[in-house]
């Protein structure tokens, strides 16, 4: 392969993209594609973009996405190209397609594309980030008792491997009385002079509780004002059940890192995700898997250091991925942008309020997710008296309603209305739940 080396292909095809190009052009790159997209006229038209079974009411779509038409078509297009000419298609498209994905993600997040690393899932992002954060000998990672298996295990593995101190705290006493002030005050009290990392989950898939991330960030920033830079608290957020639901910009959110899979609420290709880091925070991260960035690769071949490349480049794992999926991710962000981020948020909130209010009115049902949208997003957790969560979900499935059980020690039935659902489907679901009775 001496005549078809990587560098030769990249140079001849003009695919070497600099950080300056990514940083300087992202605000204009997608103007034409977005303008050419027809804005959907109603929610039925949006639902028609998904090949979901019409015989089912899908209230677990957040678990693993069905691909909407533009994402599905992009996957098929890239797959056909790779099948026809794997090496040629890869060299022709790898750089520019990943750049398009970064640009689309940056535009959606309100970020700089050079601050985004691409991963295959939330779990991969958590493992890569938490496994490599630089800590001093006396510094600790502060987390909570409410986090998902992936966060808890990533931190446990880090502690087991390096001896890092990991300390979990409770953020609230009871879901019945939880408030934003209680959560922020619990965090503030939990922070000690040894705390260097704070690791939390924005929306808890165990209960549907949504943390007040911006207020928590402000509390951390107040503490940081009296700290040296080497001791500054780094705020890391698993945002997987907020991305695609909440209308936010990362430059206004206040956290240092946001980790999320993009194959849930964003409806991106299965097996995709990202890590966003603030420019001031990225230096604390250390990569564990070599990147395949052409810039890093070329510098390596020239025996030059790649330390001046953005850390997000190094934090994007190399190797061969399911490229047809990764390269189609920009279409998922554009799909949401075409609908409108605020419109998506409002729709999810409306359907969730309808579901929660209906459940709260049933005497045999205990609603565990806070009623207020300030403390909830798109996940609703509940119990039916005399029935196990598994029985509830199985009974609903028998009536063509798809839900799930929370995968935690304390289990609840769980439903999650999204933009693929209608108010009529929520009404039907409420009628069925109201008819459920213990045997």
Textual characterization of the structure:
By secondary structure, this protein is of the alpha/beta class. The chain has two domains: 113-337, Aspartate Aminotransferase, domain 2, CATH 3.40.640.10; 341-435, Alpha-Beta Complex (Aspartate Aminotransferase, domain 1). The protein has 18 helices and 13 strands. It has helices at residues 6-13, 19-29, 31-36, 43-47, 69-84, 86-109, 122-132, 149-162, 180-190, 213-224, 250-253, 294-301, 311-314, 323-326, 329-339, 341-360, 389-398, 423-435; strands at residues 57-58, 116-119, 140-144, 165-169, 195-201, 234-238, 257-261, 273-277, 365-367, 380-384, 401-402, 404-405, 413-415. The strands form three sheets. It has a seven-stranded mixed beta sheet with strand order 2-8-7-6-5-3-4, with helices on both faces. A four-stranded antiparallel beta sheet has the order 9-10-13-12. The chain has a two-stranded parallel ribbon with strand order 1-11. Helix 9 runs parallel beside helix 10 (213-224).
